[in-house]
Amino acid sequence: MDYSKKVGNNNISLSDEVLEVLESQFNKVKTLHSTDLEIIAAELGVRDNDVKMWYTHRLAAWRRSQGLSDCFGQL
Predict the structure, then answer these.
(1) C-alpha to C-alpha distance for 16 and 65, rounded to whole angstroms
(2) In whole angstroms, what is the distance from residue 72 CA to residue 44 CA?
(3) pLDDT tens digits along 60-73
């Protein structure tokens, strides 16, 4: 599945290199602490909010693929 150029309804463009790093991190850890999110964004040279939005939508897609609710804690 392609989570690349657009995140949700926002037109957030992320490079292929950034997407590879985010996907790799997501495969290791499904949820990030806000500090980790800020560190990743700084290392990648992108806005914190862009990383947060990507992670939020990616987690929702992963949860759907697992047969779970899109939102954590909701049935």
Answers:
(1) 23
(2) 27
(3) 899 888 888 777 65
